[in-house]
Each structure stands twice: as C-alpha cells, then as structure tokens.
C-alpha cells in the first residue's frame, strides 16, 4: 500500500514529495508481491539516494528500538 510507505517515510523525516516519489517507484516495480523486508530495503535505499539519509537513519533507529522488543 503506497500510503503506508508515504506515511512511514514522512514520519521518519523525509519530505512529502520524496516519500510520494518513492512510493510511486515501488508501485512501478514488476513484482506483483513483495516481502516487507524487500519494501523496507527499497525505501531505505531510495531515501539515501534522494539525499534523505537522515530519514533512512531515523527509520532504521526506530526499527531497532521497537522491533527488537
């Protein structure tokens, strides 16, 4: 769901337009289904490529802090 990608990226600190572009690029991929780890990897890579590395770092920090519990 592209909306979830946008919301997550914006909450991590990415500009809204960047988050929308990343969600759009994800929906254009040829795979009909993707694992959540593949989506996460794609989004983090795109954030870093689009000069939003701090948002990618914040996303990873959140994952480490909340998903390890």
How would you describe what is shown here?
- The chain is mostly helical and 69 residues long.
- Helix content is 74%, strand content 0%.
- It has one domain (2-67).
- The protein is built from four helices and no strands.
- The longest helix has 15 residues, at 53-67.
- The chain is globular and about 30 Å long.
Please supply descriptive tags for the structure shown above.
single chain, 69 residues, mainly alpha, 0% strand, globular
In short:
With 69 residues, the chain is an all-alpha fold. The protein is 74% helix and 0% strand. The protein is globular.
Give the helix/strand layout.
Layout: H1 2-11, H2 16-27, H3 36-49, H4 53-67
Helix pairs in contact: 1-2, 2-3, 3-4
Q: Which oligomeric state applies?
A: single chain
> Number of domains in the coordinates?
1
> Quick check: average pLDDT?
87
- Please give the radius of gyration in angstroms: 11 Å
Number of strands: 0
H/E topology pattern: HHHH
Structure annotation, total helices: 4
> Largest beta sheet, briefly?
none
Distance from N terminus to C terminus (CA atoms, Å) equals 25 Å
Percent helix range: over 70%
Question: In terms of structural class, how would the helical and strand content be classed?
Answer: mainly alpha
- Give the amount of beta strand, in percent: under 5%
Low-confidence blocks of residues: none
The backbone outline, from C-alpha atoms, is globular
């Amino acid at each position: 769901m592209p909306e979830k990608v946008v919301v997550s990226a914006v909450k991590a600190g990415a500009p809204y337009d960047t988050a929308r572009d990343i969600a759009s690029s994800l929906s254009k991929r040829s795979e009909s289904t993707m694992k959540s780890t593949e989506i996460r990897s794609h989004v983090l890579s795109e954030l870093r490529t689009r000069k939003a590395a701090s948002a990618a770092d914040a996303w990873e920090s959140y994952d480490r802090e909340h998903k390890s519990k």
